């Protein structure tokens, strides 16, 4: 709570000149949603909850085509889990969701604070999910942000360069299983280049992982922290259908036999909109995850394929995501029925999955999607 009050006070102090300016722009919007679901396990499990996500945006045009803007939003929610008629778990929280300020021109931007940083070409199985936890099954695409400073420059030939410094993020991000040392900065960057019919990019990130966040002191026989480096490559091309590839290589140096030295993630994808009726969109991705003690060893691996299908029917839309685990021969099935009505959007989710959920096991809330079940969500945007 002390950090929350400090962040709010700092942001409003920095925005004080804008609040006094007559030519500043203000926008207040928000989102309210409620949901309820049943998992037909033995015994039956159920979940219900609500979320309120208000957002205040402020902007001002400065001299020499320079613009200043900021965003302040909070994520407040209530969530209840029941097993049978027993309330076995509940959670209620109010936390910052976005808390940043930005200076920008037509070709440059510098953004500081709690923000979302994501990139890459893949859509459902994303090797470059380094800093977010976006779940492709979530229609709201909610994810916690990271505290940091991000700079981007856009060249005239549509190439762009990113540089970032993250600090104070002691929870796992993306595919991480080990948190970061809170007081050690994380550094990285990305270069993206146009190529015929598409674009390619290379990314890099360095951090210091903290074993003390997951192991007991008696299990740590060497240093409690260790360096970790990531290199990412991705590209996307429009050759009729869209095709893309994404690769991430992580090198860690833990003083522990519990964790691998090398982690490799690879995705190859394709999508196309067929001229059937209102337009049938289909996308498929092939994904492989492997971890080993040597860079060229296959080690422990998991292989998945996914198929995403969406079809609009007037103000309604039906969609589906299907995954197949080639390693244990299991299927994961999600169906999403959506209806839009003015500011309201209604969703009905149906799922039929294995009892042991092995995909997206780094994203909270997956236990509810294990097995077979149904969930309803109503969303109001203002």
Task: Describe this structure as you would to a colleague.
- By secondary structure, the chain is mainly beta.
- 5% of the residues lie in helices and 58% in strands.
- The chain is built from 1 helix and 18 strands.
- The chain has one helix at residues 2-20; strands at 25-39, 45-61, 67-83, 86-104, 108-115, 146-154, 160-166, 186-195, 198-210, 225-238, 242-252, 262-274, 280-292, 300-313, 316-325, 330-341, 344-352, 372-381.
- The longest helix has 19 residues, at 2-20.
- The protein is globular.
Topology summary:
Layout: H1 2-20, E1 25-39, E2 45-61, E3 67-83, E4 86-104, E5 108-115, E6 146-154, E7 160-166, E8 186-195, E9 198-210, E10 225-238, E11 242-252, E12 262-274, E13 280-292, E14 300-313, E15 316-325, E16 330-341, E17 344-352, E18 372-381
Based on the model shown, name its key terms:
382 residues; mainly beta; 18-stranded antiparallel β-barrel; 5% helix
């Amino acid at each position: 709570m002390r950090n929350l009050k400090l962040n709010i006070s700092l942001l409003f102090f920095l925005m004080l000149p804008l609040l006094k300016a007559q030519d500043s722009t203000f926008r207040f919007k928000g989102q309210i949603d409620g949901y309820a679901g049943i998992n037909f396990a033995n015994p039956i499990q159920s979940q219900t909850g609500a979320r309120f996500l208000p957002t205040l945006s402020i902007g001002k045009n400065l001299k020499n085509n320079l613009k200043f803007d900021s965003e302040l939003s909070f994520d407040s929610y209530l969530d209840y889990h029941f097993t049978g008629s027993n309330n076995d778990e509940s959670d209620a929280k109010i936390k910052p969701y976005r808390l940043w300020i930005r200076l920008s021109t037509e070709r440059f931007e510098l953004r500081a604070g709690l923000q979302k940083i994501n990139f890459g070409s893949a859509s459902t199985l994303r090797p470059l999910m380094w800093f977010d936890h976006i779940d492709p099954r979530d229609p709201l695409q909610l994810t916690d942000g990271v505290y940091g400073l991000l700079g981007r420059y856009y060249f005239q030939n549509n190439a762009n360069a990113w540089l970032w410094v993250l600090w104070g993020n002691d929870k796992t991000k993306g595919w991480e299983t080990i948190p970061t040392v809170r007081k050690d900065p994380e550094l990285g960057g990305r270069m993206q280049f146009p190529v015929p019919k598409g674009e390619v990019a290379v990314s890099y990130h360095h951090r210091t992982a903290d074993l003390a966040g997951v192991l007991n002191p008696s299990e740590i026989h060497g240093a409690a922290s260790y360096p970790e480096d990531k290199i990412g490559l991705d590209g996307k091309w429009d050759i009729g259908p869209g095709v893309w590839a994404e690769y991430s290589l992580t090198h860690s140096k833990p003083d522990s036999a519990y964790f691998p030295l090398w982690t490799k993630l690879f995705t190859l994808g394709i999508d196309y909109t067929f001229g059937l009726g209102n337009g049938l969109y289909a996308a498929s991705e092939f994904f492989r995850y492997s971890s080993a003690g040597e860079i060229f060893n296959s080690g422990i691996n998991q292989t998945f394929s996914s198929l995403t299908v969406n079809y609009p029917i007037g103000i309604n839309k039906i969609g589906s995501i299907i995954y197949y685990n080639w390693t244990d021969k299991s299927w994961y099935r999600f169906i999403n029925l959506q209806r839009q009505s003015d500011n309201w959007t209604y969703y009905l989710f149906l799922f039929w999955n294995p009892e042991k959920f092995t995909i997206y096991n780094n994203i909270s809330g997956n236990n509810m999607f294990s097995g077979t079940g149904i969930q309803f969500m109503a969303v109001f945007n203002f």
